């Protein structure tokens, strides 16, 4: 399914004081990196104003497209990070997101691509990075060079989910879909976007999320009264929360008892996807259960890692081993966190 929309104007998000004005150069708008950043989540040197280009439906998905100044980010391969700095010819940082239009649950792992055309000629075609930023949480993004001030057709294509879906999501989101936005780009309008220098840059902490009701953030769920919260702990600054679901709550997972582990950032509870996790239940120092956790998208739990489990006793210990840290690129403030992750222990 391919649709088209035209937006001649856009809405600015995250405007604040201390902004650099029109005519700012690339060196002005991309503040220097924090020297010797701490291990873990830290406050980045700046917050970049984003423009919401538009929101539209594409098949069962709702997709959104935004842009900001070009930014530096780090690609993650295993536990290694690789800096992808903004090039002088880059015009914008494109950000795209897909979510369920009924619940607002964000859909990671959808293989999102962006195609940019100008007067029918291909300008850029990118399998954009899955990434995380403090201003938006999980999204897809990359820096893109636009050759001139002009109108550009930007097609956001979703490849479809390839992970387990449960509840009302079962059988949905598997097919590809796309939507084409038309963006009126000018360098002057891009330069007018605010760049807000951050107080206490380099200190442990995080920027607050901007208010943007049309573009949801992938945040950890609020537990329902029927869920049992097992425990919460951190590893490499990732917050792991264990939930035990029983009865009707567990039935949609084809289980009598279902263990769900939600991984999130420590300050804004932003979901950390694309991890490999193993859970072991220890009782009296001996392992009584062991399983790889399945990456799952659920209307209530959102994106999480889960498995059916046997009966758990008080005093049992749940050991969560990280086989693979979050395989998402990182904006500044996240590039030193969630990498080498020691095992975490949650008390039942």
UniProtKB/TrEMBL annotation:
Stretches of Low complexity bias are at 206-221
**Residues covered by the DUF7350 domain:** 228-346
Q: Where is this region: Disordered?
A: 206-226
Q: What is this protein called?
A: DUF7350 domain-containing protein
The major lineage groups are: Archaea, Methanobacteriati, Methanobacteriota, Stenosarchaea group, Halobacteria
């Amino acid at each position: 399914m391919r649709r088209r929309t035209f937006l001649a104007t856009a809405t600015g998000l995250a405007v604040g004081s201390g902004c650099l004005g029109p005519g700012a150069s690339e060196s002005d708008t991309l503040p220097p990196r924090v020297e010797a950043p701490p291990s873990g989540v830290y406050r980045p040197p700046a917050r970049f104003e984003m423009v919401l280009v538009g929101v539209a439906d594409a098949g069962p998905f709702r997709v959104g497209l935004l842009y900001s100044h070009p930014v530096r980010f780090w690609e993650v391969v295993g536990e290694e990070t690789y800096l992808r700095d903004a090039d002088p010819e880059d015009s914008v940082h494109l950000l795209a997101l897909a979510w369920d239009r009924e619940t607002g649950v964000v859909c990671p792992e959808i293989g999102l691509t962006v195609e940019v055309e100008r007067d029918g000629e291909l300008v850029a075609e990118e399998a954009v990075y899955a990434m995380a930023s403090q201003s938006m949480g999980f999204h897809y993004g990359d820096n893109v060079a636009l050759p001139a001030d002009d109108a550009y057709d930007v097609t956001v294509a979703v490849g479809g989910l390839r992970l387990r879906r449960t509840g009302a999501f079962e059988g949905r989101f598997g097919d590809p879909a796309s939507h084409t936005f038309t963006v009126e780009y000018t360098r002057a309008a891009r330069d007018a976007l605010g760049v807000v220098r951050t107080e206490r840059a380099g200190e442990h902490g995080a920027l607050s999320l901007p208010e943007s009701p049309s573009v949801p953030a992938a945040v950890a769920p609020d537990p329902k009264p029927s869920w049992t919260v097992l425990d919460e702990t951190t590893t490499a600054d990732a917050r792991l929360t264990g939930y035990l679901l029983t009865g009707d709550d567990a039935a949609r997972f084809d289980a009598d008892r279902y263990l769900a582990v939600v991984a999130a950032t420590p300050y804004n509870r932003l979901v950390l996807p694309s991890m490999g996790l193993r859970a072991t239940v220890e009782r009296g120092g001996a392992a009584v259960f062991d399983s790889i956790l399945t990456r799952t998208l659920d209307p209530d739990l959102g994106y999480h890692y889960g498995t059916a489990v046997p009966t758990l006793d008080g005093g049992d210990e749940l050991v969560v081993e990280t086989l693979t840290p979050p395989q998402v690129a990182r904006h500044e403030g996240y590039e030193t966190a969630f990498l080498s992750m020691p095992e975490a222990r949650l008390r039942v």
